Each structure stands twice: as structure tokens, then as C-alpha cells.
């Protein structure tokens, strides 16, 4: 082996710094700043609005000329860092935001320095790290070891991949060659509850099946799928000559955290010869808690399982995953191998696994390293404890709401999501909706906390989704105090009387 001789007389330029020492100094300073930023996150408001001066910066035109990195970093410090989504904050409970962990900053630097394309077909460390991570995830979720898997951007992409595999596997013809328009073929039907995530509808549309191929089945009072209605829909589709192809269950719905009866759905899928896809974006990881794992009993019976590491596994964005039972249907759906991507027997292109044969992306970031480092650093048991802590916090918050005369729960608390509102006597449903919307916006604007909102049975709900390892009971006490204080102020004003 020989390395290239150093050529001191080269005239070519590169994008490397002319002065590495300056970059090193800036790098050290940035790392210190970032660690300090996370260490002090609790001292900052849960949300603060972006000032106009920052928006002006983001309206500036394309930079044609160079600026020193130090100067650009100053702009980041002043105009970007203070205004995050703030899912890193202990009182952030909007949508399903994950918190991330400080240790992953280290992995992030390594990922960026290596800048691997994570193809899997390259015989390099990243391929093996990702495969090992997938094996760990299968073990954590009790999925068979011979299942295939892929890291993707998030739950939406994981749902798309899983539902695409269902399509190729279930179509009684070569859907990749013929498309879904094949003459004389029955329409493939997918079924999810009305609480299924919006990404499912997008996926069904993108797969060319058409939104009419997705039956949205009503839910029961506990927001889980109505099994009788599901079975009726399947039967009536069969009678009409359509082909019931795919059941989509949710483990942890985004609105209320409800989990469809997975074992019952797996039984139906078996009896009806249908594919079972489980959207376990956050809920799948309830499996890691010995006290709460029974909520997701039956999870491992899924043919495909979608979940996010960036939600309830507290990994930095973005990282989702899809697992598919058996390698064959997965590869049959996505494999296209041109000559320029052929694996070779030896050398760089002799890696263990061509990820592009299992999904849509070709080049990907080496995001696996963040999760790999975090799982090794904390240990999987620790994650189970954190998840259980969030479930206990949701229970605590719900109990406090139920005990409070001015608050009411709007859905059963099944896992880590709490829905509630402020109530006041003699107000119409509309007035209460307006009142609670105003309360929510003020809770955020005053920087008290960052819950989000939804509509349940037609009522506006303040929604608290807890995938946050920094939250403490006192944070939920502060939320309740803030909501009640603002609600009391508002009902005293003529607008809400
Ligand atoms: C968040 C979520 C998704 C989408 O995941 P992304 O990572 O945001 O793409 C899908 N399903 C459920 C139940 C979710 O909570």
C-alpha cells in the first residue's frame, strides 16, 4: 500500500479551510456552546416568537461572496439558536416531538466528518453498524431475526415503504410491471381507522391506489378501531368484487395514544388472508417497559411495522424504521440494480446489504450511528424506564385534571397522550372551543409550556404528548396552573362570558 505523495506546488483549490487552526478553535467553541445550550434549556421559555430582525436575515438574497465562518456562526447564535421548535425543552409536548439526548452530539460530529453515504453495499463500517442496529431493534420489538429492515427519514416514509410492500405482495398480478390499472383486476383495498395517521392516506394515494382504496373505519369510545364495522367493510368489499389487501393498525394513535387491538386485528388479517401493517410510530416502544408492554401485545405479529426512533426512543431527528417479516416481499418491491450499483466480490463494493433494494432512497446519511451510540451509552433497559416514566406522568396529569373542578379530560389516557380542556358553566360548545384555543395560544406565548391541540368528537382539545425525558411532575403542575390562571382571567372578560 502506498499513499499519494504530497505535492507542495499544486494550484488547485478545495473547500477545505486555509487555516485549520481557526476552524479548530471555532469547532471547540461551538461544541462548548451546544453543550451549554442543552444544559441550560430549562432556563428558557417553552416557546418564544421569532423577531422581525431575524426574519429579515432570512429574507436576504443568495450569498455570492464568501463570509468568514465565525461571522456566519454569530448569525446562527443570534438568529437561529434561540428559536428552536424546542422539543428539547422539558415542557414541550406538541405533536409527537422527541427530545434527543446530548450524547448524540458526539455521534453527529462523527457522522458529519465521515460523511458516509450509508449504501450498505459498501464494505465499510457504516453498513455493519446499521445492520447491527436493525438487529437490536428487532430484538427490542420481538420481531423475528430474519425480518428485513430499513432506516428511513421517519414514520411517514416507513408507512409508505410498508404499504408499498403490502401492495406488491397482495396484488394477484405483477403490480410493478402492470401498475394498479391492470385490466380486469380487482381493486386492492386498505383499511385503517379514522384515527390513522395522515401519512397513511398520502401513502395510499402515492401508491396509485387512490384514496377510495383506503377505508377509514370508525372508532369506538376509546378511539380504537370498531372491529364489527371493519369486518362489515371487508365483507362488503369482497361481495362487490374488490380485494381486501391490507389492514393498517395503529399502536399509539397521534390524537389520543390509543392502540388498536393488535391480536384481534392479526387474527382477522390471518383469517382474511390480508397483510397486517402496524403504524407504531411512537407506541411501538411501549414494548420496552415491563409494566406497560401489554398495551402493544400482538405487535410482533405484524407483516410490516413502522416506527420512529426520533419520537419515543429520544433519538435526534431524523430517524424512522420499517421492519418487514421475511426478506423476500421487501426486496421484491424495491429492487432495481443497475450495472453501476452492482456488488463486487471484493473491494469497496463488496458490502453486506444493498439498502437501495429495500426502499426508495439511494444515498442516505449515517444516521444509524446516533442511535447505535445512544443505545450503547444508556443501555436498552434505561429506555424502558424513561418510557414508563412518561406513561406515569400522563397518568399523573390525567388524575390532576380529573380532580380539578375547572378541567375535564376529553379522551381516556391510554398511554402517553392527555387531552383536556378548561370548562366553565353556562358556556356554549362554541364558546368553550374559542376559550380553550385562546388559552392554548397564551400558554405558548407566555412561554409556560408547549402543548398542541386537536379536535375530539367535535370538541377543541388541549393535547399533551409526552415523549420527553426532561419533563418532571412539577412541569405538569405548571401547565395546569397556567391553563387555570389564563382560563380564569379570560372568563372574567366580556369576550368569554
Ligand atoms: C408521527 C407519526 C407518524 C409520522 O411520522 P414522521 O416521523 O413524522 O414522518 C405516523 N404515524 C403516527 C402514529 C405518528 O405519531
Précis, in short:
The chain is 40% helix and 13% strand.
Bound molecules: pyridoxal-5'-phosphate
CATH fold name of the largest domain: Aspartate Aminotransferase, domain 2
Order of helices and strands: HHHEHHEHHEHEHEHEEEHHHEEHEEH
Query: Radius of gyration, rounded?
Result: 25 Å
Features:
single chain, 497 residues, alpha/beta, Aspartate Aminotransferase, domain 1, Aspartate Aminotransferase, domain 2, 2 domains, 7-stranded mixed sheet, 5-stranded mixed sheet, 12 strands, 13% strand, binds pyridoxal-5'-phosphate
Can you offer a commentary on this structure?
The protein is of the alpha/beta class and 497 residues long. It has helices at residues 20-39, 52-57, 69-80, 104-114, 125-140, 155-170, 175-178, 198-206, 227-239, 262-272, 327-334, 368-378, 380-403, 429-445, 473-491, and strands at 92-93, 148-152, 188-193, 214-217, 243-250, 275-279, 304-308, 320-324, 407-409, 417-422, 450-456, 459-465. It has 2 domains: 19-48 and 83-100 and 380-497, Aspartate Aminotransferase, domain 1, CATH 3.90.1150; 116-378, 3-Layer(aba) Sandwich (Aspartate Aminotransferase, domain 2), CATH 3.40.640.10. α10 (262-272) links the parallel β5 (243-250) and β6. α14 (429-445) crosses α15 (473-491). The radius of gyration is 25 Å and the shape is globular. Pyridoxal-5'-phosphate binds at residues 96, 154-156, 197, 199, 250, 252-254, 279, 281-282, 308, 320.
Amino acid at each position: 500500500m502506498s499513499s499519494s505523495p504530497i505535492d507542495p506546488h499544486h494550484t488547485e483549490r478545495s473547500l477545505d479551510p486555509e487555516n485549520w487552526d481557526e476552524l479548530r478553535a471555532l469547532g471547540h467553541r461551538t461544541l462548548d456552546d451546544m453543550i451549554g445550550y442543552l444544559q441550560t434549556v430549562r432556563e428558557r421559555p417553552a416557546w418564544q416568537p421569532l423577531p422581525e430582525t431575524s426574519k429579515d436575515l432570512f429574507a436576504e438574497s443568495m450569498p455570492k461572496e464568501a463570509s468568514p465562518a465565525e461571522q456566519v456562526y454569530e448569525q446562527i447564535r443570534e438568529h437561529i439558536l434561540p428559536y428552536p421548535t424546542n422539543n428539547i425543552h422539558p415542557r414541550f409536548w406538541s405533536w409527537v416531538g422527541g427530545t434527543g439526548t446530548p450524547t448524540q452530539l458526539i455521534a453527529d460530529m462523527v457522522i458529519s466528518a465521515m460523511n458516509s453515504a450509508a449504501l450498505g453495499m459498501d464494505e465499510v463500517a457504516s453498513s455493519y453498524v446499521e445492520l447491527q442496529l436493525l438487529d437490536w431493534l428487532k430484538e427490542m420489538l420481538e420481531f423475528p431475526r430474519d425480518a428485513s429492515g430499513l432506516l428511513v427519514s421517519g414514520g411517514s416514509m416507513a408507512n409508505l415503504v410498508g404499504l408499498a410492500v403490502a401492495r406488491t405482495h397482495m396484488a394477484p398480478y405483477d403490480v410493478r410491471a402492470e401498475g394498479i390499472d391492470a385490466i380486469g383486476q380487482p381493486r386492492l383495498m386498505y383499511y385503517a381507522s379514522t384515527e390513522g395517521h395522515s401519512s397513511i392516506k398520502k401513502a395510499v394515494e402515492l401508491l396509485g391506489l387512490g384514496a377510495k382504496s383506503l377505508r377509514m373505519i370508525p372508532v369506538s369510545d376509546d378511539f380504537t378501531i370498531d372491529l364489527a364495522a371493519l369486518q362489515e367493510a371487508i365483507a362488503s368489499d369482497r361481495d362487490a368484487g374488490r380485494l381486501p389487501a391490507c389492514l393498517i393498525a395503529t399502536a399509539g394513535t397521534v390524537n389520543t395514544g390509543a392502540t388498536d387491538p393488535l391480536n384481534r386485528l392479526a387474527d382477522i388479517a390471518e383469517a382474511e388472508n390480508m397483510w397486517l401493517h402496524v403504524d407504531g410510530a411512537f407506541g411501538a416502544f411501549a414494548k420496552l417497559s415491563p409494566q406497560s408492554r401489554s398495551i402493544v401485545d400482538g405487535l410482533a405479529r405484524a407483516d410490516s411495522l413502522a416506527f420512529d426512533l426520533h419520537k419515543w426512543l429520544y433519538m435526534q431527528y431524523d430517524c424512522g424504521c420499517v421492519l418487514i417479516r421475511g426478506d423476500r416481499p421487501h426486496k421484491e418491491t424495491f429492487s432495481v440494480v443497475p450495472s453501476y450499483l452492482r456488488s463486487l466480490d471484493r473491494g469497496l463494493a463488496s458490502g453486506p446489504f444493498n439498502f437501495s433494494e429495500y426502499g426508495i432512497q439511494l444515498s442516505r446519511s449515517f444516521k444509524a450511528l446516533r442511535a447505535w451510540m445512544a443505545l450503547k451509552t444508556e443501555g436498552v433497559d434505561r429506555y424502558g424506564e424513561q418510557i414508563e416514566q412518561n406513561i406515569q406522568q400522563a397518568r399523573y396529569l390525567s388524575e390532576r385534571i380529573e380532580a380539578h373542578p375547572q378541567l375535564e379530560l376529553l379522551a381516556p389516557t391510554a398511554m402517553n397522550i392527555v387531552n383536556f380542556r378548561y370548562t366553565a358553566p353556562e358556556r356554549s360548545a362554541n364558546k368553550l372551543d374559542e376559550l380553550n384555543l385562546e388559552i392554548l395560544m397564551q400558554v405558548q406565548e407566555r412561554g409556560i409550556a408547549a402543548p398542541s391541540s386537536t379536535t375530539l368528537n367535535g370538541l377543541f382539545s388541549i393535547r399533551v404528548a409526552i415523549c420527553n425525558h426532561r419533563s418532571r411532575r412539577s412541569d405538569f403542575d405548571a401547565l395546569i396552573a397556567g391553563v387555570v390562571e389564563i382560563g380564569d382571567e379570560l372568563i372574567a372578560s366580556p369576550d368569554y362570558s
